[in-house]
Amino acid sequence: MSALEPVRVRFAPSPTGRFHIGGARTALYNYLLAHQTGGQFILRIEDTDQKRYVADAEEEMKSALTWLGLTWDEGPDIGGPHAPYRQSERRHIYEGYARELIESGHAYYCFCTPQRLAEVRKRQQKQKLPPRYDGLCRRLDSEEAKARVDSGESHVIRFKMPKDGVTTCTDVLRGDIHVENANLDDYILVKSNGLPVYHLASMVDDHLMGITHVFRGSEWLPTFPLHVRIYQAFGWEQPAWVHLSVFLNPSGKGKLSKRQASSGKGGVKAIFTTDLAELGYIPEAAANWLALMGWSYDDHTEFFKMEDLIEKFSLQKLNPSPAAVNFSKLDHFNGVHIRNLSPEDLAGRLVPLFAEAGYAITAGQLEPIIPLIQERIRTLDEAPTIAGFFFKDHVELEPDQLIGNKMSAEESLAVLKQAHQLIEDIGVEQGDALEEALRSLAEKRSLKAGQVFGLLRIAVTGQKVSPPLLESMHVLGLKQTLERTGQAVSILQGSSDL
Fold first, then answer.
1. Beta-carbon contacts of residue 446 (< 8 Å; ≥ 6 apart)
2. Cα-Cα-Cα-Cα dihedral of 477, 479, 480, 485, to 10°?
3. Which of 43, 71, 30, 49 is nearest to 239 (CA)?
4. pTM confidence score
5. Do the Cβ atoms of 457 and 464 come closer than 8 Å?
6. pLDDT tens by residue, 24-81
7. Are strands 175-180 and 166-171 parallel, antiparallel or unpaired?
8. Contact indicator for 317, 297 with CB cutoff of 8 Å
9. Of these residues, 258, 265, 392, 448, which one is catalytic?
10. According to the 3-state scheme, what is the secondary structure of the chain?
11. How far apart are CA 177 and CA 145, in angstroms?
């Protein structure tokens, strides 16, 4: 267990679009540290960006977290001692802190119009200067500024960054980061509509909610000095800042965008968390995969259940280097975790996928076939494709499917007839005896055993790829197996190829 005191961590997404796997990893690390230390994991919705707000994004995010098994201790749906947990409902709180910054001289009112700001940017571009606010309103007399606000003039509130010296920011993964203040901008804290931006609202909320560790993406590093300065302006103790590595495309080149998908199952691989379930991945594997994109326990251990992750996770072993998203690794982990499930558990998870494929069956009906497919599927959605034939009344076949590899139609028919008779004579219970008889049949007809078994596989399952044939016939039972081989004989006998 960790020697850390109980932490308070938060996952604070903005509901502005679909829930990316990068957000899922951030939430996972928060959850692991909270549970490892006996602390609290808080869900907070940062919805002050109303222009980009997406109505159903919050529900998708909650569904994804629930699917991954990441439950929260406080949040907008369950409440808590620091409610409300939705920033749009905390506006009155931010207004007071914004005034405090103005009164202490750490922020100021800015009345510059969008047109003036655009002109300033154009001049800076021509002079090849970095784009930033030129400080016009920073120099206004405070009484004059207040009078203009009282008169109703449109304005924003900007933070007054120092213009000389250095700001030192400490990141858990990167150590001390020193930034020249002359290179920093006077960022907007409150927009003209009165709503705060992330820079103010998140800092205030993290302080009021007692957040001890802030996990977030490395895209926040450029504004890290601003956040440190805001904490200093209020005289607050800073949390431990943890800026996580970025996700790269599977090729290792370029940041993985929320608009990108890469080659994979069906031509697409999911970068949105809820899509993983639809593609047949299980949450245990997804959590294992996500945890290892930016963290490792040692140089060889890869399989982790959630309880293992909680026990072994540590801040010291997080890696700030960019991590390429490896979907092949996800497939691997999914197969390993599927094989780790109990047959009853796997059957229960497969029922909805079989129902979606048109098979109205129960978990009890699925359990006999689990031993035949559990070692062979990498994703849950493969199961109905590979094992749906067990639940069909009969398989649909065309005559040309029943012509064996490098065999004529006449020879195929003869083999099917003889195989049908062997099955009837020996039964499907004695798998070894039946296998020996079928191999003997192949030898007598100067065929390879694979030719006979391949032909019989098509007749019984309707597929070139299936679970082990003899075991499948055993599960189907003698009656249904004979019906299918008999049907295959009839189809081939009626073929014009004979």
1. none
2. 110
3. 30
4. 0.91
5. yes
6. 999 999 999 999 999 999 999 999 888 888 989 999 999 999 999 999 999 999 999 9
7. antiparallel
8. yes
9. 258
10. CCCCCCCEEEECCCCCCCCEHHHHHHHHHHHHHHHHHCCEEEECECCCCHHHCCCCHHHHHHHHHHHHCCCCCEECCCECCCCCCEHHHCHHHHHHHHHHHHHCCCEEEECCCHHHHHHHHHHHHHCCCCCCCCCCHHHCCHHHHHHHHHCCCCCEEEECCCCCCEEEEEECCCEEEEEEHHHCCCCEEECCCCCECHHHHHHHHHHHCCCCEEEEEHHHHHHHHHHHHHHHHHCCCCCEEEEECCEECCCCCCECCCCCCCCCHHHCCCCEHHHHHHCCCCHHHHHHHHHCCCECCCCCCCCCCHHHHHHHCCHHHECCCCEECCHHHHHHHHHHHHHHCCHHHHHHHHHHHHHHCCCCCCHHHHHHHHHHHCCCCCCCCHHHHHHHHHHCCCCCCCHHHHCCCCCCHHHHHHHHHHHHHHHHHHCCCCHHHHHHHHHHHHHHCCCCHHHHHHHHHHHHHCCCCCCCHHHHHHHHCHHHHHHHHHHHHHHHHCCCCC
11. 35
DSSP-derived pairing of the beta strands 156-159 and 107-110: antiparallel
**Amino acid occupying residue 498:** L
Gyration radius of the chain over CA positions: 32
- Neighbouring residues of 178: CB distance < 8 A, sequence distance ≥ 6: 166, 167, 168
Specify whether 258 is catalytic: yes
pLDDT per position as a tens digit, 436-470:
999 999 999 999 999 999 999 999 999 999 999 99
